[in-house]
Amino acid sequence: MESDSSCIDLTHLNEEELPMKFDESLKLSDKEDAGADDYSDIISLRLLDLTDVDDFMEWFTDDNVSKFCSCDSFVSKEDAMRYIADVVIPHPWFRAICLNGKPIGSISVSPFQGSDRCRGELGYELSSKYWGRGIATMAVKMVAAAIFVEWPHLERLEAVVAVDNPGSQRVLEKAGFIKEGVLRKYYLLNGKPKDVFMFSLLSTDTQVAYFM
Ligand SMILES: CC(C)(COP(=O)(O)OP(=O)(O)OC[C@H]1O[C@@H](n2cnc3c(N)ncnc32)[C@H](O)[C@@H]1OP(=O)(O)O)[C@@H](O)C(=O)NCCC(=O)NCCS
């Protein structure tokens, strides 16, 4: 695994920013990954609400994003608001990825139930104008640092990535996930069956402690 000198800096948080759950306002300085001439960006994760709809539509209507995602995409603001109200807000763990406070993408962990409840599935997407700056990798590390604390029953965080999505595979590799193998014709993307790689990170993997 690569060495990573970035750190989650909870000292940025004041009491208003740190309500019930610490992950609702995790912040991370991305000085290490920022462009050479920009050391001011702060990546944070927070809950979304209906007032975020315009930002939300930016990545959910981005064709570069939807071609890799089985998630819904929207044309109307009304549909997006309904999706935020019906899916995003009630979701057990859905956060906006924010750059200097502006939502530019989202990241979620969907829990499994019953005898599969030791597992959660990670998903993420970022508006394409922000790609290639290390933002998704940072967000994944922040989730890994938070989720095993918030959900102590969770043993395994997994992610399935289409074999023809090398950017997302790289994100998971950089965040210390293990590539476990190929699952053939695992899900439909735009109506076509896709082969995927299964990646996982375990609560006991040493890199998890390093992210905290
Ligand atoms: C996947 C996604 C979240 C990555 O976001 P990002 O902020 O650009 O990711 P990062 O900058 O942290 O890392 C991307 C890495 O992939 C690499 N990469 C990007 N495109 C690549 C390609 N076509 N081939 C090989 N590597 C590629 C980048 O070079 C970078 O690696 P590096 O740091 O070693 O150079 C973003 O591309 C996205 O939203 N895609 C559409 C939705 C999606 O695929 N979601 C995941 C579904 S599983």
From TrEMBL:
<dbReference type="InterPro" id="IPR016181">
    <property type="entry name" value="Acyl_CoA_acyltransferase"/>
</dbReference>
<protein>
    <recommendedName>
        <fullName>N-acetyltransferase domain-containing protein</fullName>
    </recommendedName>
</protein>
<feature type="domain" description="N-acetyltransferase">
    <location>
        <begin position="43"/>
        <end position="203"/>
    </location>
</feature>
<dbReference type="InterPro" id="IPR000182">
    <property type="entry name" value="GNAT_dom"/>
</dbReference>
<dbReference type="Pfam" id="PF13302">
    <property type="entry name" value="Acetyltransf_3"/>
</dbReference>
